[in-house]
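Here is the promised in-class demo. Please do not try to memorize the tokens; focus on the logic of going from shape to residues.
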């Protein structure tokens, strides 16, 4: 079997399996033999196979008339939610009408095949993906969840201070992102904001006993007023909505960590607000029909025009949030068109009273100022017994014109719909014709017809070039095999000396083919693999005359031109029809009811686990804002589209809020009636709320004052500690001087408190709290050197072997040694210039070398670090002078003399010649670089020891600090990809270990695994999301998918409960850093120790991580 045949067979098997899966899903039949029989009978036609199975097995119950007619009853005095799953865009399968069943089957098959064409994903693969989706609905009632704090406040109140004119966020108090998303969307409707802030409870309620609604709604209204007032005038970056949330959660009768559905919560919220304002309206308008501002703001009316078994009816109904089905539609208008028409609508326009078909149309008679659409992205999978999220893409516009759905435009809309239907039918025919041109052929593989003709033209014009038998023989022989070589030699000998050896002349002109008698005994073992001797190098006609070639080329060229012209004409016609359909409603008469997109509520995750946030348009700044719990940031339409349309990382819009663009009062600011000035901040609040916000701001001011006092006290204590340390240092220095006088201390021009001693030696910089101990060690070292000096004069070269000497000191002593001749001939100043030139040249060469990561000269020499990062010349000069002025150079006369020259040069530097703040900044950056290196080194060592828990914090902080360095320059830090790789790998290892502990089912192991996730992995996920690096994003998806895979598995109720509490935190896509560990305390390393350990760990690194990424 050839490779091509093998591929075709695999494709055929996969296609057959896809057909079986589609049949199983559509008909519900699980008998594989019966499904295969249906495919055989129908010869692979899905529609016929479904008909075969349904006729054989289906038994459909009688239609319940009351069920269908339920939404068309006139006497219903409560608002009816329209477009729900029960009555919107639903084909009635409860009757015995075979047409409905066949249409449903055809629709299902069409959607399935469309999904495969668009995504390349089979139904079987989609089913596997759905199994991984989150659903624990069957255990909801029995689970007892514990309250978990999601946000951890920063102890520094200045981190929680509101920036000027920045919107206020809402704290997530335990899976309450659903609350934040809805409340922020409503709060930014300024008319709604004013209604809530200026609401006052009915006066008579204080005297009458409260019923259940009053007992619940009025306290909630007061908490909502308090919350809104803080969102208006608080000095805090975000506020706590706990009081309002607790009242809502009690009403939901669910455990307090239950993550609520956005539409369910919004329904409940509007119902409560409607009831609260209704009580107030009834009190204000005694004897008159009261007006409820919530109803006027959010509720509209539509006319249901329908036919039920030939009898026409009309009914006016009210609606609030309008539900729309998402599955099977590409944009919002398609969803609305489908929601406005139900059943067989042809009978609506006919006069036949005896028609048995039923259907209805919806026409809006009155639209609310705030028009809200619920996008139904969840459906219940009967086979799996769980809800599933629909991730398909759905586009929606920023400006929506509702004219085509209005009752006053009913007739013109019907005409346009009929025209669109006719155009789409014609479009289908054109697309089918175009498909015949673009997918030509009768086999499984098809190609564009124009390309087929072009290939035929290329074939006819090809010239046959035959290959020699020698080339064939060489290619068929085993490479390097002795058998082939022996046969080749034998063949050459038998052909005689007149025949050139085949292996030596393959490029010569082909000789006449040898006779059969010559060829058979030689090449018989290779008969099966050998090509015919006269086979062309490439496909070409064997026999064709010039006349035949000319006629054939002319025909093919003419046919190809005709095909290309036909293809262009078809494509042009299709484009024109698409354009006509797009512009069908673009005339001014159908653009009189504009609705602008105000807010988009987004959900990321699975059916019962995920995270909500909102995009809200700011008309004053003319930009989109992203409200993600405590984080409020500027966004863009492009980011909104990416997160809201669907099909990207499981994030999609769940609710759309449009506002009437002709009613600007909805978003207009309030103005003072006397001064005409726009009200802002506390001026927008009534007196009681103004006092409430001032009190809260006073508490926050007091908290900041206490923090400032505490920090000032700490700073004073640190200052005193430094003074004590300095005094101790002076005592130790005095003791060292009296015990053994230092060479540098005998010079009156350079006392101990001179500039050389104030500046640090950064390659061996001690910590402030340990300064006296290091100074004492330096003194003892100097004393021992002086004693050794008296016994034996040691050359600078001999000191190079001392382990105590830093790389800086080694280089300086070596450069002084090289200036020995100059010193003896010309004196110390000339030797100083010679030595400093030698040292700088050496360091410059190091800075220009391209070394391995383990041999980083920047760690050994601060000058190398400065050169590579283009530090100013004055910074380099002073740093180099400081090194030559080091007190440890006083161990012999030559070094001591050069040290004196360096100190004299330092004294000559005027204060205005060098910016000491800039000098200190460069040296601080170098200290930060060393600290980052230590974090990285320890993290990598622990990672190699598989101590992932301990390694994580070192790798996390090394990555964060390194990025801060790299912002200033490419050579300020280390390779961020390398650190990011091991940070990522460490998190993946911890995630895998924690998942393994969870799988064990043992209580201690489960708790330890979830503790690792909650305390280490989950807090680090925002760090991987914030920079939008593809590999980091993939790692987060890997970790999330690992835990989401448990949702389709059976487990103990206690494990299900823990998983339910944990998943929302894992799936939270916020990039806000909520709580984090303090950086680990670093040990002190000498330069030699640091260089050695860092080089060792870098040399041992594996270049390819465990996952191969």
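The designed amino acids, position by position:
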């Amino acid at each position: 079997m050839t490779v091509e045949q093998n591929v075709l067979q695999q494709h055929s098997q996969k296609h057959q399996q896809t057909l079986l899966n589609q049949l199983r899903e559509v008909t519900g039949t699980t008998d594989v033999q019966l499904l295969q029989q249906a495919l055989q009978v129908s010869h692979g036609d899905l529609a016929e196979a479904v008909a075969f199975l349904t006729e054989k097995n289906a038994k459909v119950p009688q239609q319940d008339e009351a069920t269908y007619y339920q939404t068309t009853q006139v006497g219903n005095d409560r608002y009816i939610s329209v477009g729900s799953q029960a009555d919107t865009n639903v084909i009635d399968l409860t009757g015995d009408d075979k047409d409905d069943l066949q249409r449903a089957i055809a629709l299902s098959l069409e959607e399935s095949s469309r999904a495969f064409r668009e995504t390349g994903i089979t139904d079987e693969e989609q089913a596997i993906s759905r199994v991984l989706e989150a659903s624990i609905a069957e255990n909801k009632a029995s689970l007892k969840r514990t309250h978990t704090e999601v946000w951890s406040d920063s102890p520094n109140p200045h981190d929680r201070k509101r920036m000027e004119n920045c919107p206020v966020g809402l704290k997530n108090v335990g899976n309450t992102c659903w609350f934040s998303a809805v409340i922020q969307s409503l709060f930014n409707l300024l008319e709604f904001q004013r209604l809530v802030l200026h609401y006052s409870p009915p006066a008579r309620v204080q005297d009458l006993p409260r019923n259940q609604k009053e007992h619940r709604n009025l306290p909630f209204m007061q908490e909502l007023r308090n919350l809104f007032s803080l969102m208006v005038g608080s000095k805090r970056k975000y506020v706590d909505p706990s009081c309002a949330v607790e009242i809502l959660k009690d009403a939901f009768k669910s455990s307090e960590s239950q993550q609520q559905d956005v539409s369910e919560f919004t329904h409940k919220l509007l119902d409560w607000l409607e009831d609260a304002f209704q009580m107030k309206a009834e009190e204000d308008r005694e004897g008159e029909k009261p007006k409820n501002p919530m109803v006027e703001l959010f509720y509209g009316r539509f006319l249901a025009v329908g036919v039920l078994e030939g009898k026409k009816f009309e009914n006016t109904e009210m609606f609030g949030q309008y539900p729309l089905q998402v599955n099977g539609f590409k944009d919002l208008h398609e969803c609305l068109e489908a929601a406005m028409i139900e059943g067989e609508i042809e009978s609506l326009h006919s006069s036949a009273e005896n028609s048995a078909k039923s259907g209805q149309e919806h026409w809006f008679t009155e639209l609310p100022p705030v028009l809200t659409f619920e996008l139904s992205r969840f459906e219940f999978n009967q086979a799996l017994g769980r809800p599933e999220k629909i991730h398909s893409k759905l586009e929606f516009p920023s400006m929506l014109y509702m004219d085509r759905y209005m009752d006053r435009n009913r007739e013109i809309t019907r005409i346009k719909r009929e025209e669109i239907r006719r155009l789409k039918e014609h479009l289908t025919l054109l697309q089918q014709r175009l498909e015949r041109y673009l997918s030509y052929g009768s086999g499984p593989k098809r190609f564009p017809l124009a390309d087929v003709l072009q290939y035929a033209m290329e074939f006819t014009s090809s010239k046959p070039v035959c290959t020699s038998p020698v080339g064939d023989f060489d290619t068929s022989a085993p490479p390097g095999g002795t058998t082939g070589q022996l046969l080749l030699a034998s063949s050459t000998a038998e052909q005689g000396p007149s025949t050139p050896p085949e292996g030596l002349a393959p490029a010569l002109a082909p000789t006449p083919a040898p006779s059969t008698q010559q060829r058979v005994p030689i090449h018989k073992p290779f008969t099966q693999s050998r090509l015919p001797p006269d086979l062309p190098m490439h496909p070409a006609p064997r026999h064709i005359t010039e006349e035949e070639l000319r006629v054939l080329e002319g025909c093919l060229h003419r046919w190809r031109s005709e095909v290309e012209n036909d293809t262009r004409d078809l494509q042009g016609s299709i484009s024109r029809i698409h354009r006509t359909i797009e512009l069908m409603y673009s005339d001014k008469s159908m653009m009189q009811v504009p609705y602008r997109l105000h807010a988009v509520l987004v959900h990321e995750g699975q059916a019962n686990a995920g995270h909500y946030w909102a995009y809200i348009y700011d008309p004053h700044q003319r930009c989109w804002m992203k409200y993600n719990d405590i984080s409020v940031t500027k966004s863009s339409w492009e980011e909104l589209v990416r997160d809201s349309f669907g099909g990207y990382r499981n994030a999609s819009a769940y609710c759309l809020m449009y506002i009437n663009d002709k009613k600007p009062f909805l978003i207009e600011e309030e103005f003072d009636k006397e001064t005409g000035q726009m009200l802002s901040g506390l001026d927008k609040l009534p007196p009681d709320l103004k006092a409430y916000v001032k009190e809260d701001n006073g508490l926050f001011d007091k908290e900041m004052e206490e923090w400032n006092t505490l920090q000032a006290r700490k700073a004073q204590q640190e200052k005193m500690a430094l003074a004590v340390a300095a005094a101790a240092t002076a005592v130790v220095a005095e003791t060292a001087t009296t015990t053994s006088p230092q060479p540098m201390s005998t010079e009156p021009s350079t006392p101990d408190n001179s500039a050389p001693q104030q500046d640090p030696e950064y390659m061996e910089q001690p910590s402030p709290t340990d300064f006296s101990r290091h100074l004492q060690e330096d003194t003892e070292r100097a004393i021992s050197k002086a004693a050794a000096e008296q016994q034996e004069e040691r050359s600078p070269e001999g000191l190079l072997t001392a382990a105590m000497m830093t790389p800086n000191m080694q280089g300086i002593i070596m450069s002084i040694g090289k200036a020995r001749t100059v010193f003896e001939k010309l004196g110390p100043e000339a030797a100083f210039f010679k030595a400093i030139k030698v040292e700088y040249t050496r360091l410059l060469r190091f800075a220009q070398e391209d070394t391995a990561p383990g041999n980083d000269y920047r760690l050994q020499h601060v000058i190398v670090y400065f050169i590579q990062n283009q530090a100013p010349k004055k910074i380099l000069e002073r740093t180099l002078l400081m090194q030559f002025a080091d007190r440890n150079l006083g161990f012999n006369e030559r070094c001591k003399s050069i040290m004196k020259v360096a100190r004299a040069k330092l004294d000559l530097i005027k204060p205005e010649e060098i910016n000491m703040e800039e000098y200190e900044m460069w040296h601080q950056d170098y200290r930060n670089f060393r600290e980052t290196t230590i974090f990285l080194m320890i993290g990598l060592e622990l990672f190699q020891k598989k101590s992932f828990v301990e390694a994580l914090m070192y790798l996390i902080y090394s990555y964060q600090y390194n990025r801060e360095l790299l912002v200033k320059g490419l050579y300020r830090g280390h390779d961020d990809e390398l650190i990011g790789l091991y940070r990522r790998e460490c998190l993946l290892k911890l995630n895998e270990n924690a998942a393994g502990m969870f799988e064990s089912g043992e209580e201690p192991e489960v708790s330890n695994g979830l503790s690792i996730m909650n305390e280490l992995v989950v807090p680090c996920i925002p760090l991987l999301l914030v920079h939008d690096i593809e590999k980091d994003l993939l790692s987060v998806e890997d970790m999330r998918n690992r835990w989401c895979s448990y949702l389709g598995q059976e487990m103990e109720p206690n494990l299900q409960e823990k998983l339910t509490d944990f998943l929302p935190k894992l799936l939270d896509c916020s990039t806000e850093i909520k709580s984090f560990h303090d950086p680990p305390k670093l040990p002190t390393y000498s330069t030699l120790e640091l260089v050695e350990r860092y080089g060792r760990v870098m040399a041992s690194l594996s270049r390819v991580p465990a996952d191969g990424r």
